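INFO batch 0412 | record 1 of 1 | parsing
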Amino acid sequence: MAHPLRQRAFRLLFIGRTLSSLGDFVIPAALAIAVHHATGSSGALALVLACAMVPRLVLLPLGGVVGDRYDPRLVALTADLVRCGTQLLVGAELLGGDPSVTHLAAASAIGGIAGAFAAPTRSPLVAGIVDGAQRRQANAALAIAIGVTRIAGPALAGVLILGVGAGWAFILDGISFAASAALLAAVRVRRVPAPRRTLLADLAAGWAEVRSRDWYWSSLIAHAAWNGVAAVLLTLGPAIAVDQLGGDATWVLVLEAGAVGLLLGSLVAARVRPRRPVLVANLGLATYALPLALMAAAAPAPAVIAAYGVAQAALGFLNPVWETVVQAEIPPQALARVTSYDWLCSLAATPVGYTLAPLAAAAWSPRVPLIAAAIVVATACVGSALAPGVRRIALPDARRPAAGEPVLADPAPSPVAVTTR
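INFO prediction complete | emitting tokens
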């Protein structure tokens, strides 16, 4: 069967998502530099980051409802245009030489709101463009692209910041969102309309889809635990690496090993087809206990670096596999709402880890929260195997259409799908 990239609609989506992902990975370094130059305060940076995170968390369920009720392609396109505008305005202000923290915070908040509506549309877009038998390759291709941009983005940020200034990083991000919107405008995909209900009824119906599937809610617990403990390592790891494992270069190598591992895991997901994908992927996530435990023990730097690369490879494997299963098993008219709950659980756990890690380290020592985090992630991820659905669920194949998906007479779909979203 031909690779999904041979389909025009998916190729346009792939290029757009890759461009916007590259721009997004340029922004963190540029934002930190911009806020530092404007205020010299780490507290101001925390405020700007919170302005992006809080509205996104609060509005994610609403974004899922909107993605199911309306045209997800149009929702994603609109969100891209909003983020394009905010990034271009920030870039212009930075190039003007007098950035305002208030303006940066407001732009971050608007971007966070747009992100809350954009994130739940990713799965419906892939599910509406690519048929069930090819979705694993499609999701793996997107994950590989994100892995590449995760490596290339910070390097490009450094070139832009040192060469022409942080403002141009925001200009680049704005242009990438504009390109993504233009490409989405040319995409046509299948759509299964959701029945109209009240907002609360829509939210309840989406949650009912989550609650009725033991493989889904048990995996959400594991994924939330993973995100929470990852925040613990990212909070406490730099100081341990610098003070006990060899210096700044050690932490840089840890992060680079993670980026490479993430990419390699996505490549493996494109080629390997486990019989029990959710079980294998969740057990793989338990490997995050290794770098946590090794860092708690102040193990040699090469061991910590290798363990973190393995742990991130497991995440790279999980992402496309998980999305493929979800797109196959969740009814398409509820897909945006269900994935919004996935995003919500994962993102909400991150600030919990950021908050608790330094408090626990100050009260006892960094070793205590690191060991506790290792136990939590191993227990949650291995414990998900107790759910029968986790052990039973399988990847879709060419003989079994995805849930709610119309059966096409021609097994090779045309580049432009039947119904316009």
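INFO post-check: The chain has two domains: 1-191, 207-396.
INFO record closed
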